[in-house]
Amino acid sequence: MRFTSSTAVALLLARSASAAPQLKYGENTGPVGGITPPIPTATAPSGSPYGDSSLLGGNARVPDVDSDTAQVPERPQLVNGQDADADLGLYLDLASADAPQPIRGDYGDVDPGPRTFDYEKLNPDLFAPPGTDAGSVPNAVWPLGLSHNRPGYRGRSGWARQQNTDVLPNAKRMAGVDMKLAPNAYRELHWHTAGEWALVLKGCVRVAAINDENQSFTDDLCEGDVWFFPPGVPHSIQAFDKGVEFLLVFDEGDFDENGTFLVSEMFARTPREVLSKNFHADVDAFKDLPDGELYIFNGTRQPKDIGQQNTTAPGGFLSGNGSYTYHWSRQEPYRVPGGSVKILDPRTFPIATMFSAALVTVQPGAMREMHWHTTSDEWDYFLQGSGRATIYHAPSAGRTFDFTAGDVGYISQAEAHYVENTGAEDLVFLEVLQAPKFSDVSVAQWLALTPRQTVKDHLKLPDKLLDSLPKEKTILKAGNRNLTALTGGGKAYEP
């Protein structure tokens, strides 16, 4: 038989496809729900997908109730701290178990399936919750890895994925977008009904905008820098030679990146006669307009000299308090035992009138101290590491959530919480508030500044503890890197 090149390629593809193994995510296998895989392979239809009335209760024979089991065949593998008192709420490293079990202290029981182990390993405080969890708390975490990732125009120009109330219903006041632009690619000229606050995560970018006061603005930003464009302000974003990834935070919970006002669509939806009149140009000048929205697309390399693209408007160039950018990367962090923090709010970045943010680094074993925010919900983005937070929801509910890099967290106004580093590396996360200044109420400081007898009458706390309460906010609390130290007689904190 003579093979052509196309035939050989087709056979190779067919052979490789048939040999490809199915992906496995640590799910349990074996009999489940009355099915015993693997089932025989059929070459022709047989039987019926339906049963008959002889299987109805009262008609069918009584089953042998000793024939099946909902227990695991072997002694369940428990991780360090899983046998401890449930109210201790120790962090459980379920990732170290082959098949984690929803057991904590005297509570719970084994889970024979069906399930996928990897989800439970990432969310041990949902799968085996602390005994102090109670009631219902709105979901507070959304992994952007589960968001639909919309690619840009052909040519591998970039992508964007978002979180809004569609996927995190309680996040009513803020939404987020993670966007990547390939080298020299654009997020096309656009504007929004929402305010756009952004943190550059990787790479460098050039932004440009004008406002309704005949003023213009252009600036270059790199990792750790921030921009803000108020609602309605048109702007462009272009990556430099090594591309850029940035995080966008919008002040509308139901914001949809796919509903942005785009320059390409504005021109496409305007009659050509009107375009000709508006721009005093022949109709032929518009014959090469794009067929549809550009969204994210590859562009011409911009000059490194920003002065070549810095067009000064009749109203002048925006600077000082009117600037749309802040070079946050150059701000030195405030260092405290347990980590560091950088705060950016309208007091130093005036144009972002209601955006206040903290970039927090928490060392292993440490935690962002127990606190709440008086006037704003809190939108979080986890940049590195892993952590957990228990959210107290009035009057008597609490739930513990786990977070890893790429997760969005959302905590409603006035709900008390902490953020504890549960990993072996620094935890880095962003706190964003819709507030004119970054502020919180520290639980420890509150008790320290409340009459001692009042605290003792309420909580029965010993004098030694009350003597140690700080009158200043500590922001972070250093802790033992061994999160199950209490099981061996150790302490959760460092003296």
UniProtKB/TrEMBL annotation:
One GO molecular-function entry: metal ion binding
GO biological process: oxalate metabolic process
SMART domains: Cupin_1
Active site per database record: 431
Alphabetized SUPFAM superfamilies for the sequence: RmlC-like cupins (SSF51182)
Cofactor(s) listed: Mn(2+)
Region annotation Disordered: where it falls in the sequence: 29-75
All copies of domain Cupin type-1, residue ranges: 144-287, 326-467
Binding site for Mn(2+) 2: 371, 373, 378, 417
Pfam families reported in the protein's UniProt record: Cupin_1 (PF00190)
Signal peptide: 1-19
Keywords tagged on the record: Manganese, Metal-binding, Signal
Residues reported to bind Mn(2+) 1: 190, 192, 196, 235
Cofactor details (free text): Binds 2 manganese ions per subunit.
Protein name per its UniProtKB record: Cupin type-1 domain-containing protein
